[in-house]
Amino acid sequence: MPLSHVDLHCHSTASDGTLSPREVVQLAKDSGLSALSLTDHDTIAGNAEATSAALELNLDFLPGIEISCIFPKPGLMHLLGYGVDPRSDSLTMLTRKLIEGRDGRNLEIIERLQSLNVAITLQEVEDVAGGDVIARPHIAQVLIKKGYVTNTKQAFDKYLAPGGLAFFDKEVFTSREAIGMIHHAGGVVVLAHPVQLKHTNSAQLEQSLKNLVDLGLDGIEVIHSDHDEAAVTQLTQFADKFNLLKTGGSDFHGARKPGVQMGIANGRKIPREWFDAIVSRVKKQ
């Protein structure tokens, strides 16, 4: 009989987490999870290692990716792709363009920091990152190391978040393009942490969901570390209304989000049946 809970939103050193893909899988096993999906930002580079580790540890595993899409500020739209085929030409093009967008954004941010008399180089950030994807938390880590800020929050508030002195956007795909590419790669598309769209009322959120459903959205992340009880209730209702898959995840990043625990999202566990429903949908793609 499979265990009762899973985690469908985790990050490793392949993007901006602090544990390797193998270590993420080991922690999932140690945490009593029966299944896991690795959803690194803009890359599937960690999925091969995670798949191998999951087989060794007898943990069910689903390859994943998290993609940022163009969306009006101050909101953020991230889409999760589950069950994507790593050999897909569509996915190869998608990840290549996403990495190119990140690389261009990183150079722009570093140049803006340098113009503010912040002594930082791309090489320093690459040394900290150590993986295929360089992200803003890596830049923040260098800023902390060199004494320009005292913690990650201060780095983002002052320099790296929207409105920050060195902020530069990177999103390169519309939601229509991202959904189409994930589907073409055999994957299922889920809207991540809808509260980060930062809508001011439920009618706006409902309209955004309807727009995404019309484009082919398959599911919505109901349980997340940023979702309180009211959000979970509302998102459950929207999932039922639009006949969407329900998903959930901790958004685990390791030491970069020390308050987030693997397999637990704001005190809630993610039901095993949600993982099974996604796997079933993937098989029908």
What does this structure look like?
With about 280 residues, the chain is an alpha/beta fold. It has a domain at about 5-85 and about 185-285: Metal-dependent hydrolases (TIM Barrel), CATH 3.20.20.140. About 45% of the residues lie in helices and about 15% in strands. The chain has ten helices and eight strands. The protein has an eight-stranded mixed sheet with strand order 7-6-5-4-3-2-1-8. Strand 1, helix 1 (about 20-30) and strand 2 form a beta-alpha-beta unit.
Can you summarize this structure?
This protein is 44% helix and 15% strand.
The main sheet comes to: 8 strands, mixed
The level of helicity is 40-55%
Number of helices: 10
SS elements, strand count? 8
Q: What is the straight-line distance between the termini?
A: 27 Å
Which shape, going by the Cα principal axes?
A: globular
User: What is the assembly state of the chains in this entry?
Assistant: single chain
- Model regions low in confidence, pLDDT < 50 over at least 5 residues: none
N-to-C SSE string, H for helix and E for strand: EHEHEEHHHHHEHEHEEH
Write down the CATH topology of the domain at 5-85 and 187-284: TIM Barrel
Record the SSE blueprint.
Blueprint: E1 5-10, H1 21-30, E2 35-38, H2 47-57, E3 60-69, E4 77-82, H3 89-115, H4 122-129, H5 136-145, H6 152-160, H7 175-184, E5 188-191, H8 202-215, E6 219-224, H9 229-241, E7 245-249, E8 270-271, H10 272-284
